[in-house]
# Entry
Amino acid sequence: MSRAPRWEIPPTAGLPLHLLDLRGGRANLAARLAAQLGTPPLQLECSGTAALLLALEVLRARQPDRPVVVVPAYTCPLVAIAIHQAGLRVRLCDLRPGHYDMDPQALADACREDTLAVIPTHLAGRVADVDTAVAVAGRVGAYVIEDGAQALGARDRGASVGLRGDVGFFSLAAGKGLSIYEGGLLLTRDAQLREALREESAWRVPRRPTWEFRRCVELAGLAMLYRPRGLALAYGRPLRRALQRDDKVAAVGDAFAPTVPLHRVGRWRQAVGAHAVARLPEFLATLRRQAYVRRARLRRLGVEVFDDPRGAQGTWPCLLLQLPDEHSRDQALAQLWTAGLGVSRLFIHALPDYAYLADRVPRAPVPNARAFAQRTLTVSNSPWLDDAVFEHIVEVIGRAIA
Ligand SMILES: *Cc1c(COP(=O)(O)O)cnc(C)c1O
# Structure
């Protein structure tokens, strides 16, 4: 293993905070984002998982005899945790072979009279096939919840993602685009559902000042450390330690607590986010330009880089790559994962392969999701990853697939 680097590229391109963002001001983060994205009002919650949990509770109250939620077999473990916490059951849907979308036939098989909702997922900023989910869910009377946790700012046929399904949510967690350390946003085009979500939150979510105080300290820490030198300390060191003891789940931050806290987001963090929002469109445009150039470079090498469907324009926190097999993927990672260059993996496993989720996820065979976990890696699209470093990454990947 190589010597510890002194600086570290983050695995995804988050919008860096400025110290001036911390000055406080108007707590209008959700309103400013809604105006910027052209969406109906957004509802701010304390995490993406909390937003999903509230959505599930509202939908379950409407259809209490439907205990099952269908999710892609390769997604964030927090999705399974939210479903369990809402008193519902996970049903897995395998992926399309070699793709991040759910397989349409597997989805049709998974959706039945007992199904409350389906969760198509905009993975790594890529826009998911929500239309198929809407069609399949519609046939059995289930809802569609768009997981846009990794895709704030992504658009599909001219509108923000999250509006084709019944409900959508975004994450404002550290490392996911725009961050207030932890936060989430709910959106829906249905005014009645929007009111129900607002009411659910109003009675269900307490203030809990100690949680909010902790998040404020964490946000200040994020603002200071989210730069290559700080990240070597805050992200690189724990990453290398986890990999040294071969704990890959800890290395990518996939080990989550069994329940998610619910509390209100305070005015200061909202104001910090509201300042940063002003820089988001320009930042996303810069990332898109860089991603297009680098995607082309990787493709000339014969590497598969995931893209959006026609008519969609996702966001580019990273480039999501699929190598020919697990061996070549692992060979590339052996040289790159601990080198501080922003090369990493998305989620380590398909959901059934997380030992700690055994009581929340059924042990279904999901070969395509497993293959996806085995063959994919991510290359950061952070502006701190310069052309020379990117070219080095390209060479290493080229050797691994040769
Ligand atoms: C991060 C993530 C979530 C949960 O969002 P948090 O804000 O971290 O709670 C849900 N789904 C996906 C796909 C994610 O990446």
